[in-house]
Amino acid sequence: MRHALVMLGMLGAVTLGAVTLGAQQQPTNDLPNPYKTVEGWAKLPAGRVWGSTSAVEV
Question: CA-CA distance, 44 to 13, in Å (whole number)?
Answer without folding.
Answer: 57
